[in-house]
Specification:
This protein has 47 helices and 16 strands. α10 packs parallel to α12 and α23 packs antiparallel against α24. The protein is 59% helix and 8% strand. It is elongated.
């Protein structure tokens, strides 16, 4: 363009005569010189104005000199328009010039500016405005028009913009679910990029096409197109594009439950990252993998990935970006907080602080903000001195803070710390100060001020200011309802808090009303949302309120509401809580995929999108209330249609229909249900109560039993001691005496344990006369009351019978043999995927008795015409177990090592260190398990043989009537108010009917004898495959031979 300016100046100097119009020749000459000077000085707007004046005075072009001046001034105007971003005017002026008389040089220069302005003007149509609108067609028309005049970089950009506009248009159609139009646009984009040789863009378009295919539920086609995109990116060395496609494939596998696809793409991503030289990509990937592991509670694995990211960030690679250290340290700090490793959290917190302040000016408002998190860590550690030292540093920013919300946060942090050290008066003063600060700018309906109402109410509760606390919680409930809506989880939580506050202020009837209302609303909300939720989302929905639900029982006891309508509401809440986390994790996607048509799958995907939109709108309920109502009604109609077509779709929340009325109706006369529960008192500790339900009473009866410290005072150090004559009388006095007046001797007693009571087998408690409690009542142990409604048959179903037996396993196997065993099974459709486990050094020894046990059971079953598949030696691999998914046998016998570790004990076992979830800390050991436990590298495609409860829970074993766990510690786990986390929960979630298991470790010899006797009794004419009758008879036989309860009381049968 400098050439144009030089040429114009020369031309102007050579032009001697101009037939002036409005301005004189001298004035035009002066304007032209002045315009050039302004342009040279960078004053484009002023120069443009003068160039336009010159053009206006020479536009008649009455001689060659005047024509040349006109063309020169307007060419310069076109350039100014372009530099000022006034592309439409530049485009129109250039188009007008090209229609006039121009020599070749002029035409080339004008054409260049016309093309440049036209291209930028076209981009305005292709780029969406603030309302998300674009005119792709008009943009393409403009680019097609200017293309003949473009050259160099402008031509390259313009040629690319046409297929790019088709790509953008396809994406917009996809977002509005106009999938046919989206595919048509994408195809045009693909052809355009292919003609231009634009590989990266071609990969993007293929991914877009694949995404549309997935939304149309054409998953095989989607996978094929993604693979096409990956191959193209790989052939052309586009590493980042390969990673993008692999992420999309992984997401597709996650959506469809294709675990083989997930495993292969995960392995490919791992391999690609390690080979790639892109440091930023590696860093982002390491942190992403760490985040995934942390979200699943796999803290040790998360630590491994975060440390890889940290090491990369601390390297001297020139590509490492400045913020990476801060981010890596931040991830590790937060992980160690979650793990409770506060010293490590403090160390990385200081690194975060150092990196943050390196990039900040000490005078900036936010310079001291990281001290907020440091204060919280010291609070969690219990280090008051350092905690408040950080608070002092944080408050150095106080005078700089102008925005009330920012200033308010400082007082909230300090209040939290005061609360942590039981300085409740100081905490309350800070909460009030925070509200005063917010009130200077925001109304009471502002979200932060509403949250403060609950904070003040909670602190007043700790100060025994119960009336004031109730008032704040009442306001909190009212404003929460206004802000989030009456169907929101926030409002339900607020109702529960209010009910609790009303109890302490002795407004017990009001509290009962609000608890009942909250329970009703929560049940309705869960039934609506659960079907569309992932496993993690289900658990996140439940965890904030489960503890509050358990508080309904002590509330009833405190209010003397032992047997009335409120007691029934309390029991409804309890039975739902115990059923919820036992329910199958089978997703609705799997249901529709198995039972529905392509149209049903489209309806399901549409329903998913609608639910997501509703959830997004609920963040601003007041603004979107009408839209939420309208779309909720549409979603409900769609869900009803799906339920009519896919029977299991309607059953996905059926367990939530189980309440007091359904449980009562399932009982027969002379049958009683004891549903135990527990709760924590601030003064006494854990307490126990039981709901007594029979056929006759209108409402359930809740009965307080004992405090756990009363059991502790007995000196029972092992669970088998409950059955010792020295301790049993006191156990019976605490546990059974308060209940027996409500239960007739000889009655069938169903019971659901809780917490400590998971260690107790009621039927095995000895009485003073030497008999067992189980000799006087027919006890049936249940995992939850829902099993009573499901009514497990005591007799195994008739032919055809099938059984799979695991035992006599070989825990040390050569790698080549493991590969051969793994090849026998196709795990394509499994819902289970092994995580990357950490190292260990323990060894599992072979159990010789278990082989004998399996061989004897096999012989007994085959004699009764059962189809039996034994898994012994090297054949009992993890792959063989997982292959039963969706194809489970009627009977499953597992004789092997079981394990359960608390997080504290797991901290000393390298293989399990860092895990806190009980479902990851319990499991069974299968063939070849020692290699994985020791941390040895496994061959590709081979699973480790350590099957955790978490993996078992994701299987479909709904065809299994009974699983017999002849494994030590198989009945152990983390006891909670909702149930026992461990193998018991895992197999029940997987869908099995009855379980036989051991509450503590038993000898290999006695376990073998118990199991073979059990099967002998089942096959006998007396029992005739009545599993419960055979089980009780077996316990009696083993007790007679081995009187010590340690040997026989461990075994329990659970429905």
């Amino acid at each position: 363009m400098n050439r144009i300016i030089v040429f114009a100046l020369m031309l102007f100097c050579m032009t001697l005569q101009i037939e002036a119009q409005t301005l004189s020749e001298e004035e035009v000459t002066a304007k032209m010189y002045q315009a050039f000077e302004l342009n040279k000085a960078g004053k484009k707007a002023e120069a443009l104005e003068l160039f336009l004046i010159v053009g206006e005075n020479t536009k008649q072009q009455r001689n060659e000199g005047e024509r040349q001046v006109y063309v020169c001034s307007q060419t310069m105007a076109c350039q100014c328009y372009e530099l000022l971003g006034r592309y439409k005017e530049g485009y129109l002026l250039g188009k007008s010039l090209l229609q006039g008389k121009l020599n070749d040089t002029e035409r080339k220069d004008v054409g260049h500016l016309y093309a440049m302005n036209g291209y930028m003007y076209a981009c305005e149509f292709i780029q969406r405005d603030e309302q998300g609108r674009a005119d792709y067609k008009r943009g393409r028309e403009l680019i097609s028009e200017i293309l003949p005049y473009s050259d160099g970089q402008v031509k390259e950009y313009a040629e690319t913009k046409i297929p790019l506009s088709w790509y953008f248009e396809g994406a917009q159609y996809a977002m509005t679910q106009s999938y046919d139009e989206a595919l048509s646009s994408y195809e045009k984009a693909l052809n355009g990029f292919r003609d231009l040789g634009r590989v990266s863009e071609e990969v993007d378009v293929l991914s877009g096409i694949a995404s549309v295919k997935a939304h149309l539920c054409k998953f095989d086609e989607a996978k094929r197109v993604y693979y096409q995109a990956f191959v193209l990116a790989n052939q052309n060395g586009k590493v980042n594009k390969q990673m993008d496609v692999l992420k999309e494939l992984w997401s597709l596998g996650n959506t469809t439950g294709d675990m083989k696809l997930i495993r292969s793409t995960s392995a490919s991503m791992d391999s690609l990252v390690e080979k790639a030289g892109d440091v930023k990509m590696k860093f982002a990937y390491y942190l992403q993998k760490g985040d995934e592991a942390k979200s699943k509670g796999q803290y040790k694995l998360a630590e491994k990935w975060y440390i890889k990211g940290k090491e990369l960030a601390e390297g001297d690679n020139k590509d490492t970006f400045a913020a990476s250290k801060h981010l890596a340290y931040n991830k590790l700090r937060n992980l160690y907080i979650a793990m409770g490793q506060y010293d490590d959290a403090i160390a990385y917190g200081r690194k975060v602080l150092e990196e943050y302040q390196k990039q900040m000016n000490p005078e900036e408002d936010a310079y001291y903000l990281p001290y907020s998190m440091m204060a919280d860590i010291y609070r969690l550690k219990g280090d008051k001195e350092n905690c408040f030292a950080c608070i002092d540093s944080l408050f150095k920013s106080e005078s700089r803070m102008k925005e009330p919300r920012e200033l308010c946060q400082m007082y909230l942090v300090r209040a939290r710390c005061h609360n942590g050290f039981k300085e409740y008066s100081a905490a309350l003063a800070d909460y009030k100060k925070a509200d005063e600060i917010l009130a200077s700018k925001y109304p009471q309906t502002e979200e932060n001020r509403i949250m403060l109402l609950a904070s003040m109410g909670g602190t007043e509760h700790r100060l025994d200011m119960y009336d004031e606390s109730e008032k704040h919680y009442k306001l909190y409930a009212d404003y929460t309802k206004l802000l989030y809506g009456e169907k929101s989880m926030e409002y339900i939580n607020a109702l529960m808090m209010l009910a609790n506050a009303e109890g302490f202020s002795k407004h017990l009837d009001a509290g009962c009303t609000h608890y009942t209302d909250a329970a009703f609303r929560l049940k309705a909300l869960m039934k609506e949302r659960i079907p569309m939720m992932s496993v993690e989302e289900r658990e996140n929905l439940w965890s904030p309120v489960s503890s509050l639900f358990t508080m309904m029982t002590p509330y009833a006891i405190e209010a003397n509401r032992y047997q009335d309508e409120f007691t029934a509401s309390c029991y409804d809440a309890l039975v739902m809580s115990k059923s919820f986390l036992l329910e199958s994790e089978r997703s609705l996607f799997d249901v529709v995929k198995k039972e529905g048509t392509d149209d049903d799958m489209k309806d399901y995907m549409l329903l998913t999108l609608m639910k997501k939109q509703i959830k997004e709108w609920e963040k601003d309920y007041a603004h979107h209330a009408d839209s939420i109502l309208s779309m909720s009604q549409r979603a409900e109609r769609l869900a009803v249609r799906l339920a009519e077509r896919c029977r299991s779709f309607g059953n996905i929340t059926r367990f939530m229909d189980i309440d007091y009325a359904t449980v009562k109706s399932a009982l027969k006369f002379n049958e009683v249900l004891l549903d135990f529960t527990d709760y924590v008192s601030e003064t006494v500790g854990r307490k126990y109560a039981a709901y007594i339900i029979n056929k006759e009473d209108k409402y359930p009866l809740v009965k307080y039993l004992f405090a756990e410290r009363q059991i502790d005072s007995l000196g029972v150090t092992r669970p088998d001691m409950y059955y010792n004559q020295d301790y049993a009388p006191e156990v019976l006095k605490l546990l059974w005496e308060p209940l027996k007046e409500h239960i007739a001797e000889g009655a069938t007693v169903y019971y659901v344990p809780s917490q400590l009571l998971f260690q107790v087998s009621l039927e095995s408690l000895p009485l003073a006369d030497g008999s067992l409690l189980g000799n006087h009542y027919n006890f049936v142990r249940l995992s939850s009351a829902r099993e009573l409604v499901k009514a497990q048959s005591p007799v195994l179903a008739f032919a055809p019978h099938s059984a799979v037996l695991y035992g006599g396993l070989q825990y040390d196997i050569q790698p080549t043999a493991m590969v051969e065993e793994a090849k026998k099974y196709d795990l394509t459709d499994l819902l289970v995927m092994r995580g990357d486990m950490v190292r260990g050094d323990s060894v599992f020894c072979e159990l010789p008795g278990s082989k004998q046990e399996i061989m004897q059971i096999e012989s007994l079953l085959k004699a009764s015409k059962w189809q039996v598949t034994p898994r012994m030696g090297m054949e009992g691999t993890e792959e063989s177990f997982l292959s039963m998914h969706g194809n489970a046998p009627q009977l499953l016998q597992i004789a092997t090592h079981g394990f359960y570790y608390t997080p504290e004990r797991a901290a000393h076992v390298d293989y399990l260190k860092g895990y806190s979830d009980a479902m990851m800390l319990s499991g069974i050991v299968l063939s070849g398990g020692n290699a994985a436990w020791r941390g040895k590298d496994l061959p590709d495609g081979v699973l480790g043989g350590i099957l955790t409860a978490n993996n078992i829970a994701r299987l479909d074993l709904s065809g299994t009537e009974m699983v017999v766990l002849s494994a030590c510690q198989s009945g152990q786990g983390k006891a909670t108010s909702e149930g026992l986390y461990g193998l018991q929960r895992a197999f029940k979630k997987a869908g099995v009917g009855t379980m036989v298991m051991a509450l503590w470790s038993v000898s290999d010899k006695v376990a073998t004898e118990f199991m073979t006797t059990f099967y002998e009794q089942m096959a006998s004419k007396e029992c005739n495959w009545n599993k419960r009758k055979a089980f009780e008879k077996t316990k009696s036989i083993i007790r007679e031979k081995y009187p010590d309860p340690f040997h026989w009381a461990a075994f329990v049968m659970l429905d």
